């Protein structure tokens, strides 16, 4: 195997891993919401516990 082929292989592997990461992040976002939504829920929960 020569160097260009090795580089292309590494690029494909990296691309695959990035695709998997993006799918996971999208899934988590759809299930749990974004940072602001989670922050709001935590604040509301804290207020309910206080009273």
Q: What does this 3D model show about the protein?
A:
The mean pLDDT is 94. The chain is built from two helices and no strands. It is rod-shaped. It starts with a helix and ends with a helix. The protein has one domain (3-50). It has helices at 3-32, 35-50. It is mostly helical and 51 residues long. 90% of the residues lie in helices and 0% in strands.
Keywords summarizing the entry:
51 residues; 2 helices
Q: Strands, helices and their partners?
A:
Layout: H1 3-32, H2 35-50
- Radius of gyration over C-alpha positions, nearest whole angstrom: 20 Å
Distance between the termini: 68 Å
Number of helices: 2
Order of helix and strand elements from N to C terminus: HH
Largest sheet: none
Q: Domain count, please report it.
A: 1
Shape label: rod-shaped
Helix content: over 70%
**Quaternary state of the chains:** single chain
How confident overall, as mean pLDDT? 94
- Report the portion of residues in β strands: under 5%
């Amino acid at each position: 195997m020569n160097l260009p082929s090795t580089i292309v292989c590494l690029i494909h592997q990296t691309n695959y891993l990035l695709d998997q990461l993006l799918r996971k992040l999208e899934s988590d976002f759809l299930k749990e919401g974004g940072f602001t939504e989670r922050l709001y829920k935590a604040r509301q929960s804290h207020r309910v516990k206080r009273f």
